Amino acid sequence: MDAELLSDTFVGLADTMVDDFDVIDFLHMLTDRSVQLLSVSAAGVMLADPRGALRVAAASSDEAGLLELFQIQNDQGPCLDCFRTGQPVTATDLAGPGQRWSRFAAAAARAGFGTVHALPMRLRDKVIGALNLFSAGSGPLGPADLRIGQALADVATIGLLQERNIRRSETLAEQLQAALNSRVVIEQAKGKLAERLGLDMDQAFSLLREHARRTNQRLTDVARYVVDSPAGEFPAPPAGKRP
Q1: 119/204 Cα distance (integer angstroms)
Q2: What distance in Å separates the CA atoms of residue 182 and residue 90, rounded to the nearest whole number?
Q3: Contact at 8 Å (CB) between 67 and 108?
Q4: Least enclosed by CB within 10 Å: which of 58, 103, 117, 139?
Q5: How big is the chain by its Cα radius of gyration, in Å?
Q6: Domain boundaries, given as residue ranges, for the chain
Q7: Are 170 and 127 in contact (CB under 8 A)?
Q8: 3-state secondary structure the chain
Q9: Residue 237 and residue 243: Cα distance in Å, rounded?
Q10: Residue 167 has what pLDDT?
Q11: 92, 115 in Cβ contact below 8 A?
């Protein structure tokens, strides 16, 4: 494991008290770094909306995002159980017989995943979502990887709650809803870029995110500009900024 990348990841997840904090970029960093640091193929994050219902907030790949959405739409899967119980849930050998979540297991196997680990995003008795790790193999992660995965989920949870200064539940609800709404705009922008440039959805998101970072703009603002632009163009850098 890359110790320097691990250290940098924890610093990044804890450093949320900045003026230009971007929730969506923060969550995508969590999923991307989970894949880079752990023995997994993809990762996703589910967060609860103001009504307590789970929504897909971020995913490292379209396959993982669709599988997260499948669980919500079918009301079954390890990630939902993890959120509801506040405890880690593991599903292995998803292509094998006798699965607890039959529809989810079949969908996961079709997507090329053999194992899912769902880790709670929890602080004390408050569960705000789940970090979900998808592996192509059929066996579970080792204890060291699981500890690091849970540590990433814990630090991200603390960072989110700290950034929102959450002592009033309505503040958490408002900001989580804003993050979830932003994701809709980003998905629309990905689709528009993918169609215009002949890219797949993951490539379109990488291009979108790279432009936002290079021009020092919020990811959601860049996505909204792309969606509203008739030609699906990127916004120019702010005055005084160079790409």
Answers
A1: 28
A2: 30
A3: yes
A4: 139
A5: 18
A6: 3-163, 168-243
A7: no
A8: CCHHHHHHHHHHHHCCCCCCCCHHHHHHHHHHHHHHHCCCCEEEEEEECCCCCEEEEEECCHHHHHHHHHHHHHCCCHHHHHHHHCCCEEECCCCCCCCCCHHHHHHHHHCCCCEEEEEEEEECCEEEEEEEEEECCCCCCCHHHHHHHHHHHHHHHHHHHHHCCCCCHHHHHHHHHHHHHHHHHHHHHHHHHHHHHCCCHHHHHHHHHHHHHHCCCCHHHHHHHHHHCCCCCCCCCCCCCCC
A9: 6
A10: 45
A11: yes
For the entire predicted model, the pTM comes to: 0.71
| Strand order across the beta sheet in which 115-123 lies | 54-59, 42-48, 126-135, 115-123, 89-91
CATH classification number, 3-163, choose in 3.20.20.300, 3.40.30.80, 3.40.50.2300, 3.30.450.40:
3.30.450.40
pLDDT digits (tens, 9 = 90+) for 147-201: 999 999 999 998 887 766 544 555 667 767 777 778 889 999 999 999 999 999 9
Task: Output the six-digit token pair for 185.
Answer: 């705009």
- The pLDDT score that the predictor gives to residue 166 is 43
| Distances in whole angstroms, Cα of residue 202 to Cα of each of 14, 145, 183, 206 | 26, 25, 14, 6
CA dist 222 and 225 (Å) reads: 5
Q: pLDDT per residue over 53-73, tens digit each?
A: 899 999 999 999 999 999 999
Q: Which residues contact 87 (CB under 8 A, 6 or more apart)?
A: 120
Q: What average pLDDT does range 218-240 have in this prediction?
A: 85
